[in-house]
Amino acid sequence: MAMNLGADDFLAKPIELPVLLAKIQGMLRRTYQYQQIDTNLSHGAFTLVPTDNQLKTAKQVVDLTPTETKLLSLLFSADGEVVSREAMIEKLWEGDDFIDRNALAVNMNRLRKKVTSIGLAQLIETVKGKGYRLASEGTSHDQAYCRSRWAIGLLLATLLATGFLASWLLANSFEIVLNMWFFAAAPLAVIVSIDYWRFRREWRQLQDDHPIDPVQITDPLSLAYYQKIKTLTQKLRATRDAAHEQEQETLDTLQLWTHQIKTPLTALDLLLQVEPVNAKDARLEISKIDRYLAVMLNYLKLTTLNTDLVLTELPLKPLVNETVRDLAKLFIAKDLTVTVGPLPTVISDSQWLHFIFEQLLTNAIKYTPHGSIKIYAKGDAVMVADTGIGILAEDLPRIFEQGYSGYNGRANQKASGLGLFLSKQIAEKLGLTLTVTSEIGQGSTFAIHFPQTRWQVE
């Protein structure tokens, strides 16, 4: 009945929680490619399982208290870096363990005894005056491995040297020398056989499709390769996730901007349906579409802005006058007065600075029903001031965020929240600072702060 009503699955009473969770996770995997997060932490051949309060090696398991698990989690997360005693105490205070330095020392000593019981005495190191850290990955295992190989190598070298010495001193004792070499070769054959067996086991594990368990790796070199590959894989995954996030953000912005362009297109379509066609209004809508497309193209070029900069000595007044002329239809349509005062000469990029002024002026036109817009120099900044409706105080801190249009944009359905965001991003890449002040009913003033300390006003 449940399936007939449209359910994907069902559970018969009495319901068991583990079964319910397993079914939910299965549905999430099928629908959203959901992956269950692995909370286990690894360091060399050691694996910490916080959910079970256990520390595992290839052959042994140590049961931990919740406090000991928190302490080891901090050390494992630091990945060999020093964790201060203060950081450990603060972490424990996030729960119900309100401990001091003495209690921390007691817990660390108890933890050391537990790991020592399975032969991991060097897992936790004390850094005098700083705190604690985990020993370098595989330190205990590597040292034991290297010591054993060094001891066997020394024995073989001794036997071989003795054989050569005996063959030189006892020219007729060939049988004695042969026996010495045999005893030297026998351990070597055993070592080679064991290493080959380990190599074959790990080689078969690499050929398998299942994930490699680090606790099963016994060779230090293989373990080092595993850790290196794991680190590179994590970096690759982080880079991929960042690229995916950027791609999704770009798609969302393109969708938003496409919706924004549809407004003048719809207006233009209505104008063309009425005879005679109002050419003046039609050109105005076309100019809006052109500006929307320009903003979108500049958004797509934002990631390569650093390679697209051409810094020159730039008189600002001709640049601002050109920007005003480009927006002349909008100014004339709303009967707004524009005043451009004396402006300085700066070092900047004309193309991108033109874009910033265009966005600030377009924004001023959009929210100024009547009155005037002024562009003038003040201190280290060039101001763009209007007599428009103003911006709410609660909107000011977020006015430069991507996609944020504030109350005015939502009320008038005019803003996409992209123009000011782009202006802010471009200004920062040019070494400029963009700020805004505003009062409701009095207008808004945007300021472009230049880094120059000496201005030559035209």
How would you briefly describe this protein structure?
This protein is an alpha+beta fold. Helix content is 54%, strand content 14%. The strands form four sheets. It has a five-stranded mixed sheet.
- In CATH terms, the superfamily of the largest domain is Histidine kinase-like ATPase, C-terminal domain
CATH class of the largest domain: Alpha Beta
Describe the strand arrangement of the main beta sheet, using strand numbers.
9-11-12-14-13
Largest sheet features: 5 strands, mixed
Task: Give the number of helices.
Answer: 13
Description:
The structure is a single chain. This protein has 458 residues and is an alpha+beta fold. The longest helix has 53 residues, at 220-272. Helices cover 54% and strands 14% of the residues. The chain has helices spanning 17-32, 66-78, 85-93, 101-116, 139-169, 174-207, 220-272, 279-301, 316-326, 328-334, 350-366, 406-412, 419-429, and strands at residues 41-43, 46-49, 54-56, 61-63, 83-84, 124-127, 131-134, 312-315, 337-340, 345-348, 372-378, 381-386, 433-439, 443-449. Helix 5 (139-169) packs antiparallel against helix 6 and helix 11 runs antiparallel to helix 13. The chain has a five-stranded mixed β-sheet with strand order 9-11-12-14-13. A four-stranded antiparallel β-sheet has the order 1-2-3-4, with helices on one face. A three-stranded antiparallel β-sheet has the order 5-7-6. It folds into five domains: 1-36, no CATH class; 41-134, Arc Repressor Mutant, subunit A (Orthogonal Bundle); 143-218; 238-301; 309-449, Heat Shock Protein 90, CATH 3.30.565. Mean pLDDT is 75; it is low at 32-36, 137-142 and 453-458. A hairpin with a 3-residue loop joins strand 13 and strand 14 (443-449). It catalyses: ATP + protein L-histidine = ADP + protein N-phospho-L-histidine. It comes from Lacticaseibacillus paracasei subsp. paracasei Lpp126. It is found in: Cell membrane. Residues 1-28 form the Response regulatory domain. Its EC number is 2.7.13.3.
